Amino acid sequence: MSDAAFDPATDDPRAAADALVADLREASEALDRARDRVDAIGESELQAVADTYDDLTTLFDRYEEEVTGDGDFQTFIEFQSQIAAVTEELSEDLRHRDVFERVDELLQQRRLTESDWRKVRSALEPVRDDVARIEDRREARERYEDVRFTVERRIDALADRIADLEDLQRLGDADLEAPTERLRDPIETYNDRVTDAFAAFRQSAGARELLDFVAKTQSYPLVGFESPPDDLREYVETHEAGAEPMGQLLEYADYSKSKLDHYVNDPDALKRNVSTQRTYLRRLGPEPLTVDWPPPEAETLRFRARELTSVVARFADDVEDGEGALVALRTVRELPRETDYERLRDSAQARAQLGSEERDRLASGEVAEELDACRDARARLENALEEYPAL
């Protein structure tokens, strides 16, 4: 079974793992056989034969059609000279030296026919067998590495599935009667206040100030504002219209150029830099400042609340109830310390994420059985990688 076809949520993990281990074992055995065939003659001897064979076949590919039958005499002499040059450089102890000399004899005739070329190719048969040993080993090595890579990818897929199932079990153990409002109410209060505060900031601040604020949030990775486009930033920083609120700039962007000429100094620049960024500007809302529900893990919430405090404080003093948003955020930040946070969070997640199908699978034991199967399959594959190491 190929890695692309495997779905840990629907396929039998143990059977799929066993099939993949069998593939790896077969690839390893094929590689051993290919190596033995090379070692039986010797790497250097085979490579010397392969190099000479490659020199000859390169000449065949280039000249055969032109020198067969009644071809150009000058080309014919050139071909024979180059064939002779190859055979004259053969070492005394080269494997199949006699074959190469026989090929030279067959080609050093006054005229070459299709029959002569068949004799040449027949004479080279033992040489091709030797050359195939090197090629077979290369293909066997690639096959082995491909199967090992598939095993590694399968282990990653199983690890992801195991994590999902462990989360599902954890949610299945959650107390669905827990008072989740102890988390939800403070988070909703903060979200409402910061949404209103940001809306007031966006309405009152100049576009230059607003985009400068957004740009500075890039120093806070847990506050996910999209960075302002460079051409838009440059426009609001270098044009007088940049002092206008963003809503006003968007309104200007809908004006015709003749009408816009009465309001801004450079209508073309506004059209070029603001009109083309309508989608970005209209998406520029408070969402990156809010806290999700269900909430994140306690440690994530602590770090996120710390960054949000620094970001919201940049505009809180300039808008009505901005301080209220910061007060509500401090309450949210203290939730992991002042509440039974993980129990309440698990309950909130369970209510949000567990449907009837998931609850039935948990109750029937299917989740536990699949989890055991995935863990067992992963262990088998990890053992296989140890047994069959990387090259």
Written description of the protein model:
This protein is 73% helix and 0% strand. By secondary structure, the chain is mainly alpha-helical. It has two domains: 9-177 and 355-391, no CATH class; 181-347, no CATH class. Helix 1 packs antiparallel against helix 6, helix 2 (43-67) packs antiparallel against helix 3 and helix 6 crosses helix 17. The longest helix is centred in the middle third of the chain and has 48 residues, at 125-172. It is elongated, with a radius of gyration of 37 Å. The relative contact order is 0.12. The mean pLDDT is 91.
Can you summarize this structure?
The chain has 19 helices and no strands. The chain has 391 residues and is mostly helical. It has two domains: 9-177 and 355-391, no CATH class; 181-347, no CATH class.
